[in-house]
Amino acid sequence: MTETPHPEVGFDRRLAALLAMAMFVLVVDTSLMNVSISAVVRDVGTTVSGVQSAIALEALVSAAFILIGSKVGDLFGRKRAYVLGLLGYATGAIAMTVAQDLTAIIVFWAIIGGLGASLLLPAMQSLIHGNFAGAAQKRVYALVGASAAIAAAVGPLLGGFITTYLSWRVAFGLEAVVIVVVLSGIGLVKDVEYTGDRHVDVVGAILSALAMGGIVLGVLVWQEGGEAVGALLVVGGLALVGLMRWLVRRKRAGKPVLIDPDLFHSSLFRVGITQQMLQQIALGGAMITLPIFLQMVLEYDAMAAGLSLAPLSLSMFAVALVGGKRAGARRPANLVLVGFGLVVVGVAVLLPVVPRAESGWYLLVPLVIVGSGLGLLVSQLNNYTLSPITEERVSEAAGVNSAAGSFGLSFGLAFAGAIMLAALSLGFTAQAESSPVLSTDQQQQVATALEDDAELMSNTALVEQLAGQPQDVQDEIIRINTETRPRALQIALLLPLLVGLVGVVNGLRMRRLPDPQPDGAADGAAFG
């Protein structure tokens, strides 16, 4: 078995930076596609729905195969899985620079890139666990987590800038260059040998793909306003229950399992992945509502919206680095508790600001508070969850951790967006129906227009749609729109607020648990 680095071993800054760069590429990749949709449609001669389907497929493939990807790393080598994951992303990025039709995007970017993500995420966390220890390990987890957070925040700004002033193909070309740089330092990575059972649990693999795939597909369909959401979530939920029962039965029979169910016997692991999921739900809820607020209410373009969100991403990045480097003897549970507390305070301050904000500057203080809270969480949670895991189980534990985070982010984005649009539709329709100015026909026209294009219903867009209507009708609809949008956004922001409160409650529970110790020294019965 590969020797675990001693806690006193020096901190390899170059390796840490390369791992952070790999995570940045992984997260920013989808942002580049999201902000480039119209340009991709124009240049390759496809449709918006086609590109959106490719984006959804990439998320679906990575989620469906992430637990299987962690097992592939066990069987064929964590370092090899890491390299294959990076090559999968590089293949997708290079394909995007030369793609001439949607088929190439679906095959190379969505499918091969999605499979790359399912290999890369668990392998990366396993390699961090095996190449660093003690304070150094905590710092690298914080750095990689901060890199993911800042990529999620600045990705739309970066992609929008390059797409606007150069080309979306250039953006993906630069992504491929970054991957080449990361691979150039692969010699610094020491592989982490797997010593467990090398047999394959085929049924467990199928159930895991159905479970994660069904749940994430349900969330994606929900986000897009499609049908059969409940059926998809039920299929995913039943497959998840079936997977857990199957794993327990196989474990009792002494047969190989995809994921060792004994991992979930540890209270440290359970609370760690729960907090990880809550953190990502809060981040996803904030990252869907705030850009829409800036672009729909303040009518900012993508560049201005990205700059307005910079206090969130930069404070998150800075605090994550400081928290990972200088936490010292402070208990991780206390830092996590403070982190969720800051998220709650920041969102609570943000709620009354929303209807009064006349520019992005009004959001500065609450965004710094929320970003600082998320930064503290990023600096602690990966290390808290994975540091006690033995080398034999770290890959599957990392897969579960990554799956929880990916699902949390998807759910936060979809649920907050759905809440906001539902509140907007209900509020607008209710005010329109009670308006003494609008006739019955005009009320119906307003409801239809809202249903077709609710998220783009800025005042400027409304003025264009209302051209030719009497001035009093225009003024009334603008008034209703102006009053309804902030209220809908406030309702959507209740999601990160409530999730933060749940995180605070869990943080209090964490304080009653022993702090995790490296390689199973704490809570060892559940990990060994």
Automatic annotation (TrEMBL):
Keyword Transport annotated: yes
Keyword vocabulary terms for this entry: Membrane, Transmembrane, Transmembrane helix, Transport
Membrane topology: Multi-pass membrane protein
Gene Ontology terms for molecular function: transmembrane transporter activity
Major facilitator superfamily (MFS) profile domain segment(s): 15-447
Domain of life of the source: Bacteria
GO CC terms of this entry: plasma membrane
Subcellular location: Cell membrane
Short name of one Pfam family: MFS_1
Listed name of the protein: MFS transporter
Organism: Cellulomonas soli
Lineage: Bacteria, Bacillati, Actinomycetota, Actinomycetes, Micrococcales
